[in-house]
Design a protein that fits this description.
There is one protein chain. This protein has 308 residues and is an alpha+beta fold. Among the domains are: 39-126; 141-235, Winged helix-like DNA-binding domain superfamily/Winged helix DNA-binding domain (Arc Repressor Mutant, subunit A), CATH 1.10.10. Helices cover 44% and strands 13% of the residues. It contains 15 helices and 9 strands. The longest helix is centred in the C-terminal third of the chain and has 16 residues, at 240-255. It starts with 27 loop residues before the first helix and ends with a helix.
Length: 308
Amino acid sequence: MPERGRRDVGCDNHPRRQGQGDGLCLSLERLRDYRAYTYRTAPDRRVTTLEGAVRFVEERGFVFFHPVQGPPMPSLWHAVAGDRPVPAEHDDPGHVTWGWKDSLLGTRRWYYAKVLRRCSTIISMDVVPFFYALSPNYGVPEEDYLIAYEQGRLSQAAKAIYESLLERGPQDAIALRRSCGMAGKRHAYGFDRGLVELQGAFMVLPTGVADAGGWHYAFVYDITARHFPHLPEAARPIHLQDARRRLAQLYLQSVGAVAVADIGRLFAWPPIDVDATVNSLVDAHLVRRGVRVPGQRGEWVAICDLVG
């Protein structure tokens, strides 16, 4: 099976782009087998240790923490517990993932935040710059947020949270709510929404866990560019189209095949950028468009290993 970073996955004889997938059909069984391998849901492929979890994220580039409805994506939960829902019981063996996740916050072994689909996402360190290159950050944390706010791209709640972290340093969620003037139940929704907004923009991330609040458990948050001071420079030379192409390639290597529209839904990219990105992968003989999957709607794109 193809692994992350391989460049030798190609298709032969590509005289043209348009319609090159015409007549190609991918069976659901073949697609499920491929994902069982890359998602590590097969019993002999399961992740059983913390170091194995780190390697899994490095293999895939980025995964969800827990499975999320919507576009298909591998998750750490599925890689540990198999292809089954997350149970409510706290003593389920699969919940070892919580301890792993918390133990690595702040260690810079991976990047954890609510990113894709506003859900908890784990990103390998060598892939984070490609995400950051697509974010509304230009390398000046003291100024970027003000520009975003003035242009209407940052909410007032997010601005207040960011300014508190900028001025006071890392804070747990309970202390942060007080320091930015959003304590109390009536501010709970706005505060939570602002935090998710900032995480999705790669401006803020959880960097630890504190014994705080009624549950004696609260994330500690910090500014991304402060916690990862070399990230802005690492992302600076990456062109937007190159960042989208790399992320889309990694995603397709994980899922094998997907509806073209799902790429836009996962990354929140407009259709024109999705189309250009997929076409660049087609031109590089890495994927094929126009693939048919029985019982599935829309145009699909698949890696060449699956459709020849």
